[in-house]
From TrEMBL:
Residues 402-489 form the NFACT RNA-binding domain. GO terms for biological process: rescue of stalled ribosome. InterPro entries: NFACT_RNA-bd, RQC_Subunit_NEMF. One of its GO terms (molecular function) is tRNA binding. The lineage of its organism: Bacteria, Thermotogati, Deinococcota, Deinococci, Deinococcales. Gene3D superfamilies: ibrinogen binding protein from staphylococcus aureus domain. Residues 333-392 form a coiled coil. GO terms for cellular component: RQC complex. This is Putative fibronectin/fibrinogen binding protein. The keyword Oxidoreductase does not apply. Keywords: Coiled coil. The keyword Coiled coil applies.
Length: 516
């Protein structure tokens, strides 16, 4: 049920308020009907995914079938005094005055969330607006079902988050003109109270294509919108053909949303990688300073007292003396060698990243282009883009990420401690090869060889995967041990993923994925 439809139901109720209520009936386990004197039954059907609120003259009967319905019948009593809607959202509140009697019943409110598969009916304590303490809920929603929003008896109710859309009841010609370039089927993105069905009905009444922008015909669209506010009923033709078109639009919007998230993550990842290039470039200045200080230490090593923490040495350019910090436990030459190593590492990192910079910029431009395409893409284009992205994803197995060595052997890489343990102790066979970085936490890498020997290119490939999926990622000359699975075991009482191994050999590789 869509926002304008709810608005029409509440408008029809307003002249009868305050209204005397004559009790509840419950035709089924997800329907509550409130009998209103002189009007009929106000029916709240809260079965997902198609909840509805309507007035029925039909005589409805039925006893409570759930604790929630029994609570409604016993405690939600008195005159219906106020009904209101949250903007034109699918959330309404009904205020009840309570009643005096043998057992007095306090004033209460019912909030009906007419929100598709998340439909719910809640009883709140008396108060104003849409916030308050939940006394009883038809469907309790815990953090295990929805980590963003919980509904629990005794908790505080918060309505759906606020949004900014045009109100079709007060929309001006200037505002409608601004929408003229937007396809009529997408006006609901900017106009409150419209859903798929009413969008299709809007196009029918305007006599315009559902998927085309009205452009100069915007006055027709505005007139149709105002007519829809007055009478938000949907014709039989729209219920069939129009609904199909609306369903296509709904599917396209859902697909667009699903595609936008991984693309935006891709943009963020590439942006961060380009920022790494910038930081590595800045590191060249530190490398130059390290080399200069190392040269000074090598030149004046004979003048530096052992155990010194600072050495004041004359600059090569004659600009004066320069203080150089030292590690006291190292000799002057060892301090110099440490600086040379650090400088060389920074330079190597920059060179490696700088080589990838053009590729990263091209990939970032392509990702930005794909994000831009999403907004205007039709369903067919979106489906093709989804298939393309699916093909580009690395193949994953039930246990670990899957790769293939140059020689055609399957490689499995654990993505967490549980997968590491599974690969090593359950999936791997005794003669398969096992890889792990030496001295760094990281993934277990399993190469399934079926007992065959592993050629050197395949050994280096798997070793690079192990280095790239460890804390040594991005470093150069990473030591990676490898051995047969039969030489790997889990110590008694050790946590998942912790192992001992013997009969290993070691190779040195860069901590960059070979796929890169």
């Amino acid at each position: 049920m869509e926002g304008l439809m709810l608005d029409r139901v509440l408008r029809d109720l307003q002249p009868h308020l305050p209204a005397r209520t004559l009790g509840w009936a419950f035709p089924d386990e997800t329907t509550a009907a409130l009998l209103i004197e002189g009007l009929g039954n106000l029916v709240l059907s809260y079965r997902p995914p198609q909840p509805v609120l309507f007035v029925s003259r039909e005589r409805l009967r039925g006893d409570p079938r759930s604790p929630f319905q029994r609570y409604l019948a016993a405690r939600v009593r008195g005159d219906l005094t106020v009904v209101s809607q949250l903007k034109l959202d699918r959330v309404v509140v009904l205020h009840f005055s309570g009643e005096s009697g043998f057992v007095d019943q306090a004033p209460t409110r019912i909030v009906f969330e007419v929100t598709g598969r998340n439909a719910n009916v809640l009883v709140l304590e008396d108060g104003e607006g849409f916030n308050g303490r939940i006394v009883m809920a038809a469907r309790e929603i815990t953090g295990s079902r929805n980590r963003f929003r919980t509904i629990r008896t005794g908790g505080q109710y918060s309505p759906p988050p606020p949004y900014e859309k045009l109100d079709p009841r007060t929309i001006s010609e200037a505002e409608a003109r601004e929408l003229s370039g937007l396809p009529l089927g997408r006006w609901r993105e900017r106009v409150d109270g419209l859903g798929p069905l009413l969008s299709a009905e809007l196009a029918r009444r305007a006599g315009l294509p559902f998927s085309a922008a009205p452009e100069e015909a915007w006055p027709q669209a505005l007139a149709a919108l105002r007519d829809l506010v007055a009478d938000p009923t949907v014709s039989e033709g729209v219920m069939h053909g129009g609904a199909r078109e609306a369903a296509r639009t709904e599917k396209a919007e859902a697909l667009r949303k699903a595609l936008r998230e991984p693309l935006e993550k891709r943009v963020t990842l590439l942006t961060n990688q380009l920022n790494d290039v910038t930081r590595a470039e800045e590191g060249l200045e530190a490398a130059a300073q390290d080399r200069e200080e190392a040269d000074l230490l090598m030149a004046y090593a004979h003048t530096i007292e052992p155990g010194s923490s600072v050495a004041v040495l004359p600059s090569f350019d004659g600009s004066g003396e320069r203080p150089v910090s030292l590690e006291p436990q190292l000799s002057a030459v060892q301090n110099a060698e440490k600086r040379y190593t650090r400088a060389r590492r920074r330079e190597e990192v920059y060179e490696r990243l700088a080589e990838r910079e053009p590729v990263l910029r091209a990939e970032l431009a392509e990702a930005h282009a794909r994000v831009s395409q999403l907004e205007q893409a039709e369903l067919g284009t979106l489906e093709a883009l989804a298939a393309q992205l699916q093909q580009e994803r690395p193949e994953k197995s039930q246990y670990g990420a899957r790769f293939t060595t140059p020689g055609g052997f399957e490689v499995l890489v654990g993505r967490n401690n549980k997968e590491n343990a599974t690969l090593t102790h359950r999936v791997g066979r005794s003669m398969d090869y096992w890889f792990h970085t030496q001295g760094y936490p990281g993934s277990h890498v399993l190469v399934r060889t079926g007992g065959r020997e592993l050629p050197l290119p395949d050994i280096l490939y798997a070793a690079q995967l192990a280095a790239a999926h460890s804390k040594a990622r991005g470093s150069s000359n990473v030591a990676v041990d490898y051995t047969r699975i039969k030489f790997v075991w889990r110590p008694k009482g050790a946590p998942a993923g912790q192992v001992h191994y013997t009969d290993q050999k070691t190779v040195w590789v860069d901590g960059v994925s070979p796929e890169a």
